[in-house]
Amino acid sequence: MKKDIKGIIASAAMSVAIGLQFIFIKKTLNAFGGNIVNFMFARFALAILTLPLILPKNIKALLSDMRLGGLCLILPCANLLLQTAGTMACEVATVGYVSSLGPVITLAASAVINKEKLTAPNVIGMVCAFGGALLIGFGKENPGASFGWGALLILLALVARSLYSSLKAKGPFEYSAKEITFAQIFWGAAFYFILFVFFGNKTAFIDSLSLFKIRDTLSLLYTGLISLTLVYLLNNYSLSKISVALSGVASNLTFVVTVASGVAFLGEKISGLSVAGSIVIIIGVSVAAISPKAQ
User: Fold this and answer.
1) Which one, of 35, 30, 24, lies nearest residue 196 by Cα?
2) Which terminus of the chain is more exposed, N or C, with fewer CB under 10 A?
3) How many domains does the chain have?
4) Tens digits of per-residue pLDDT, 181-198?
5) In terms of Cα–Cα distance, which of 232, 204, 209, 230 is closest to 28?
6) What is the per-residue pLDDT across 202-259, written as a single tens digit (0 to 9) for each?
């Protein structure tokens, strides 16, 4: 029970940090002129500075583990690329709505990968959650193509995160939360460094940094230090203490914080159908994940 409480607290703290990150991603992306590769390179350039704080003793064994390296290609590499592109294409509140489907996607991935059997409440809850997502979609006024693409990219990012959680649980990986976080930051930095070398705009990168204001610097610090190193530490710690499904339930805070931050800080509007859809999603997620089989 004590392990569960610690894991739930870690998962909840991670969810709050993730929920807040999207307004900072929006602001910092704008400061980089919308160049995703330049932005991601800057994030990991900051994150890699934290590696001495979590330096493992078995670096060689850690970085030569191809299974762990494959996991790192899913999260952070693929997950963050999809997430950032999706965040750029739609409102922060929309990111929150779609992110609320995370727990049921995680439950489905765990059922497929870890052979966990789904009960009737699981299936009913999942159907309700996706029904709520459809309500939110219908509630958007003139959503446009960018909304559809943005929502799809966020959904794919959630699939990547769910695959990571389920594959990590299946492992098993005999590494601590700090060791796995070290590998994620290392391989993420290597991945985005290569992308920057081949696809980044070096001149625009330097020009953007030279025009940074204090708020831009603070936003970049948040996206590079808090939403990478700290979030991954909390995520890996929570997954070592509680089940994938229970961690998904605790992550519902992401949805609440993301939508609230979009409304409060960016002046985004929410419709009645969006609110109704959100309630349906919360009910569906709760029914799907809080059951004997889910735990």
Assistant:
1) 35
2) N
3) 1
4) 999 999 999 999 999 999
5) 209
6) 999 999 999 999 999 999 999 999 999 999 999 999 988 887 767 766 667 788 889 8
The answer as to whether 153 is a domain residue is yes
- DSSP state letters, 65-131: -HHHHHHHIIIIIIHHHHHHHHHHHS-HHHHHHHHTTHHHHHHHHHHHHS-PPPPHHHHHHHHHHHH
**Close Cβ partners of 129 (under 8 Å, ≥ 6 residues apart):** 100, 101, 103, 104, 280, 281, 284, 285, 288
For 1-13, b/e burial (b = at least 16 CB within 10 A) is: eeeeeebbebbbb
Q: Indicate the average pLDDT of the chain.
A: 88
Q: How is residue 282 annotated by DSSP? A: H
Q: How far apart are CA 105 and CA 281, in angstroms?
A: 12
Domain membership flag for residue 135: no
Asked whether residue 126 is domain-assigned, the answer is no
User: Is position 28 within any domain?
Assistant: yes
Please identify which residue in the block is written with the tokens 């459809």.
134
Residue 228 is part of which domain span? Answer: 2-114+144-267
pLDDT of 21 above 80: yes
